[in-house]
C-alpha cells in the first residue's frame, strides 16, 4: 500500500502510517529527505521523525529507505541516536539503499545562499526547509551525486567528493559570493560516518521483493504532498522530488504492479508552508477569524522549521487533481476535530480564471495565483468530534461534510482521523482489506 499526502504536505501522514503498520511487516520511504517531519503521538508521548520511516515506533516492523530518498548522513546518525536514547532499537531492522544520493554540507550552503540570492534579486524565496534537498537532487540528475555506496570505497569517495565540491564551491564563491566548503574536514567526517552506516546499507529493491515472496505487507510512506511534487505541483514552488504515488515504485525499486492500494491523506482543511499560490487561503493573524482558528486550534506550525503554516478552507478542485494523479483508492480525512465549533464550513469547489469557470486546479502556478475560488457553504457542528472512533458517533453535519468532500474530489473516504493518538481513528473501509 502507498500512503501519500493529497495537499501541500503536513496532512498527518505519520500518524496514519504508524496506525496502519500494526498490520504491516515493513515501512518504506521512497522520496524526499529530512525536509519531511512526522510527529507521532503514542500514549500521549510525542516523537518527531524526519528521515526514518514512521514504522520505527513498532519494534517488530522493518524500516526501509529506498533509492529515491536523499540522505544526509550526519542527520541520519543523529536521528538514529535520538531514537536509541529514547529506547527505540532500530539498527537491526533498518535497511537503507546504497544507491541513495548524499546530502552534503555544500548542498545546505547552496540551498541557503540561493534562497537569499533569490530574495536580493527580487525573485522571492521558494521558502525551502534549508536542508539542502533541492541541490542534492540536482546532483543526482546531473550524475555527479556522491552516493551511500561510495562510503564503502574511501578512494572513490575522495575522487567523487573532490569533483562535486569543486563544482559547488565555484557556484558558492563566484556566483553566490559566500564561503566555500572545505574538502578535507568534509571527507574526514564522511569517513567517520561511514563506519556506523555501512552495516545498514542494502539492495532495498531486492529486500522488498523477498518480503513480497514471503507474503509480507509493505507500506510505502510518502513525504511532502502531491501539490509539492516537482512535476505535478505548483512549480517552481515545489520540493525537488516526485511525491506522487507512482514514485513509490521507482523510488524503492519495485514494479508498479506491486501496488494494490493508494491511500490519499487529506486534511479537513488546507495548509501550506513556504511560498506559492494557495487559492483558498485565509488570513491567520486576526483573532476570531476562521484562519486564526485553523492556525491555532490545528497547531499549524512546521515540524522541521517551526514556521507558521498558511491555512485555508478545503479545496476539492485541488483534491480532484491529486486523486487523479495518484489514482487514489481511498482518502483518509485528518484533523476533522479542528473544524469543531465553526458555525459554517466552506468548500472551494472550483475557480474563476480569466473569465472561465473551471473545476480542477490548473497546472501553471501563475494561473493558480489568478484563480478566484468558488465556494459552497455547509453548516458546521457544535459537538466535539475529537477522539471519536465510530462513523455513527459523528454529528450529522460532519458526516454530510465528509460525504460532500468525497463526492466533489472524486474518491471515497476510507478513514477519518479524529485526533493525534493511535486510537483516535474511524475506519470505513480498511485499506489492507480487513
Ligand atoms: P525543500 O523541500 O526544502 O526544497 O522545500 C521546498 C518546498 O517544499 C517549500 O515550500 C517547503 O516548505 C516545502 N516542504 C518541504 N518539505 C515539506 C514537508 O514535509 N511538509 C510541508 N512542506 C514541505
Description:
This protein is of the alpha/beta class and 434 residues long. The chain has helices at 13-20, 73-85, 105-120, 133-141, 154-175, 183-197, 204-213, 247-250, 290-297, 316-326, 365-370, 396-409; strands at residues 2-5, 26-29, 38-42, 45-49, 62-65, 94-97, 201-202, 218-221, 262-267, 270-272, 281-282, 310-312, 314-315, 330-334, 344-353, 356-358, 372-379, 413-417, 425-427. Helix content is 31%, strand content 19%. Helix 2 links the parallel strand 5 and strand 6 (94-97). The longest helix is centred in the middle third of the chain and has 22 residues, at 154-175. The chain has a ten-stranded mixed sheet with strand order 7-6-5-2-8-1-9-14-18-19, with helices on both faces. Strands 13, 15, 16 and 17 form a four-stranded mixed sheet that branches. A three-stranded antiparallel sheet has the order 10-12-11, with helices on one face. The radius of gyration is 22 Å and the shape is globular. The structure holds inosinic acid. Residues 9-10, 35-37, 126-129, 131, 133-134, 223-224, 228, 237, 239-240, 273-274 line the site of inosinic acid.
